[in-house]
Amino acid sequence: MPRTLLVTGGAGFIGSNFVHYATEHTDARIIVLDKLTYAGNRASLAGLPEDRVTLVEGDIADADLVGRLVADLTGPDDAIVHYAAESHNDNSLSDPSPFLTTNLIGTYTLIEAARRHDVRFHHISTDEVYGDLELDDPQRFTESTPYNPSSPYSSTKAGSDLLVRAWVRSFGLRATISNCSNNYGPRQHVEKFIPRQITNLIDGIRPRLYGAGQNVRDWIHADDHSSAVLAILDRGRIGETYLIGADGEKSNKEVVGLILEAFGRPADDFDHVTDRPGHDLRYAIDSTKLRTELGWTPSFSDFEAGIADTIAWYRDNEDWWRPQKAETEAKYARSGQ
Ligand code: NAD
Ligand code: TDX
User: Which residues form the domain of 151?
Assistant: First the structure.
């Protein structure tokens, strides 16, 4: 019998890309549990087979609802894949409160239900739990790097990882954790770096770089994140953490330069704006464990081609992002960004 996956946050950026990817590459049936916050979008699930994908609108911190959905996961390969989170660092600096409720209490609610019903759990996390690196640090993040989060967002993600680890050790929760680097691809909210600059340029507005633009992020296509999560679900060892990354380090200035080039504009056609308080300097992932233990490799090796596809997606799907654009930019204007 095909497995059922309960995918939390499946109407968000990475969660919806996972639902599309898993529908194409497996025979799984998928229940999406999503609160449809400002970051969730029903339209991100459009076109998926209705007999295989069901959206339940609700909160991961709602113990009754979560209990009912998890109780239905009775097949031997059924699992919870937990993407739902408040995910934007800048928002966590202006109002940390929903980050604590969703990222900590929401994760707690899910793992309590998973342990009660003995359901396999995969927790989606971020490289930001490790803090940041110097630009010339020869060591990248590994599974044994100490936790050192900087922002309200990353500290609540770190807390949620620690809850999952404790539930494995204390209660035998059948869980794995993955910490991935920065994702790009279709269906990412216009508040985030790459979609913000692409949609600015579509509107004829110059890109906005925080500070000097020297901060480095390690970019991975969302589909490569999805294939890694499927590998961990199928072959990952219970209790283990896997770092997901595709050797995609680039400074923000380099990324803006590539986007400007794709729009046929000069590489210096951007504005420097107020820096993010506590801005992490560099993230970089060593994904050796995932590659050697589970045989995973990324498929998107050409970042420029991936960016060109992403630009094409935003050009072709203005209906999807236009409703959020003005409000998002008004919020950035209020913080000088
Ligand atoms: P996103 O903000 O685009 O999507 C989050 C989704 O969760 C939305 O659909 C939202 O409606 C839903 N949600 C929020 N609160 C909820 C609640 N209380 N109950 C139910 N649903 C709720 O985020 P994203 O960028 O797709 O990130 C998804 C996950 O991946 C997060 O856990 C994030 O920490 C992690 N992650 C993101 C990146 C990245 O580059 N974006 C990198 C590594 C890890
Ligand atoms: O307009 C901008 N200008 C700019 O220079 C924006 C929105 C961002 N930036 C910078 C800040 C970061 O150095 O670009 C970089 C990327 O910014 P974000 O898209 O906000 O991502 P980041 O803070 O790196 O976090 C992302 O990756 C890790 C996700 O939002 C997190 O959910 C994930 O955990």
Answer: 4-184+219-244
* Tens digits of residue pLDDT in 269-302: 999 999 999 999 999 999 999 999 999 999 999 9
Q: Is 46 within the bounds of a domain?
A: yes
Q: Is the CB of 186 under 6 A from ligand 1?
A: no
Q: What is the pLDDT of residues 8-29, one digit of tens each?
A: 999 999 999 999 999 999 999 9
Our answer to whether residue 127 is catalytic in this structure is yes
Q: Which of 34, 59, 112, 128 is catalytic?
A: 128
Task: Determine if ligand 2 sits within 6 Å of the CB of residue 87.
Answer: yes
Residue 210 placed within a domain: no
Q: Is residue 92 part of a domain?
A: yes
The answer to the question of residue 15 being in a domain is: yes
61 alpha carbon to ligand 2 midpoint, in Å? 26
Report the predicted TM-score, pTM, of the whole model to 2 decimal places: 0.98
Residue of 6, 7, 8, 14 best suited for mutating to test ligand 1, as the one with most atoms within 8 Å of CB: 14
Q: How many domains does the chain have?
A: 1
**Closest-lying ligand 1 atom to the alpha carbon of residue 11:** 9
> Is 193's C-beta closer than 6 angstroms to any atom of ligand 2?
yes
Whether 128 is catalytic is yes
Return the CATH number at 128: 3.40.50.720
Of the candidates 49, 7, 3, 10, the residue with the CA atom closest to the CA atom of residue 27: 3
